[in-house]
């Protein structure tokens, strides 16, 4: 008695669809993150370090291993301003 | 410093007034988050005294540490820059491989032990700096020397 392979075709289609959407989503995430995997569970420390990376390289996920920062780096940290509510 | 973090900030202000000339100028470190994390234990190994001085000064200054601890901070910056400079000169490929792995893995050190071992070996051979985890219990193997990383995603990167 042969294996009823026609019965497995729907499962193969479902697996293929899930696989395709997963691959497409992960490719989209990689394109958004400069070719790297996305960061998850980002806390305030990580946000602050990613902001520093953006000030150093121009990209949120950019990395560099220079020893000296580019000129003007020490002055580029912004003060956040809000209107005073009295 | 402001009394609390601004919650409704619409604008930012970038103040381009440089520091007065009475303060010695030390260039800031140009390494971003992943290389800095990768080199952090070596910076700790060489600059432990300066780092402890700085933390003590900040703790004792009761909120005024930004202005009073500039001198200790300059020492820390110079020492860390010297460590990064030495690592760049002697172990650049292993260093780059390690921090590129870290960048791909959410800055989690336990996913990248496979690249960390050659880096540790190279830095120990050339710069005589060894990575130790402060506060680790004495009678167990430190996590970075264990064979099996229990939280790593795949066995290929351990």
Structure, explained:
The complex is a heterodimer of chains A (86) and B (158). Chain A starts with 8 loop residues before the first helix and ends in a 5-residue tail after the last strand. The model of chain A has no long low-confidence stretch (mean pLDDT 90). Chain A contains two helices and two strands; from the N terminus they run ααββ. Chain A has helices at 9-32, 44-57; strands at 65-68, 79-81. With 86 residues, chain A is mainly α. Chain A has two domains: 1-38; 41-78, no CATH class. The model of chain B has no long low-confidence stretch (mean pLDDT 90). In chain B, helix 5 packs antiparallel against helix 6 (113-127). Chain B has helices at residues 33-46, 48-60, 65-68, 70-90, 92-104, 113-127; strands spanning 11-13, 29-31. Chain B contains six helices and two strands, in the order E-E-H-H-H-H-H-H. With 158 residues, chain B is mainly alpha-helical. The chains are: A mainly alpha (86), B mainly alpha (158). The A-B interface holds A 36-37, 39-41, 46, 49-50, 52-53, 56-57, 61-70, 72-83 and B 5-18, 27-35, 81, 84-85, 88, 95-96, 99-100, 103-107.
């Amino acid at each position: 008695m042969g294996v009823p392979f026609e019965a497995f075709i729907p499962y193969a289609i479902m697996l293929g669809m899930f696989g395709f959407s997963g691959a497409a989503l992960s490719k989209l995430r990689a394109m958004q993150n400069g070719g790297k995997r996305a960061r998850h569970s980002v806390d305030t420390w990580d946000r602050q370090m990613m902001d520093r990376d953006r000030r150093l390289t121009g990209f949120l996920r950019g990395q560099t291993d220079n020893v000296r920062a580019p000129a003007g780096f020490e002055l580029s940290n912004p003060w956040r301003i809000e209107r005073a509510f009295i | 410093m402001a009394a609390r973090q601004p919650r409704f900030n619409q604008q930012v202000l970038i103040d381009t007034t440089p520091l007065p000339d009475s303060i010695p100028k030390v260039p800031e470190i140009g390494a971003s988050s992943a290389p800095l994390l990768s080199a952090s234990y070596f910076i700790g190994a060489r600059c432990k005294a300066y780092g402890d001085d700085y933390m003590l000064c900040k703790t004792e200054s009761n909120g005024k540490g930004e202005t009073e601890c500039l001198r200790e901070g300059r020492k820390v910056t110079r020492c860390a820059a010297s460590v990064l400079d030495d690592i760049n000169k002697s172990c650049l490929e292993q260093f780059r491989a390690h921090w590129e792995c870290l960048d791909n893995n959410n800055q989690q050190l336990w996913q990248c032990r496979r690249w960390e071992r050659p880096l540790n070996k190279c830095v120990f051979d050339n710069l005589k700096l060894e990575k130790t985890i402060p506060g680790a219990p004495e009678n167990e193997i430190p996590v970075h020397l264990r064979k099996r990383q229990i939280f790593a995603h795949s066995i290929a990167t351990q």
